[in-house]
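Shipment paperwork, digital attachment
Item: protein structure file
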Amino acid sequence: MLELRPNCELCDIDLPPHSIDARICSYECTYCAACVEHLSNVCPTCGGGFVPRPIRPQQAYRSELKLGLGNHPAGLKRYHSNFTPEDIAAHVARIKDIPPPKR
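Attachment content:
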């Protein structure tokens, strides 16, 4: 189940489940679109690229499957990058010119 993290791990802006500005990497690191642009589409943790986070339906449109936010709510734990701005800048500079599929 995809974890819907509630915030950008860099600027800490709220990213509710319906946010179209949320971006995730393959490890579900979550950042806002503005920070991803600033990061040149490089995840500060794994070095991968980002994609828009899917929107989880608010309700279970197929009640027998017990899906939707009512059954699988967004996470509440806020995450923050463990890396310093200097470390992130160096990491991004090292690999930003390598396209995500080749990283």
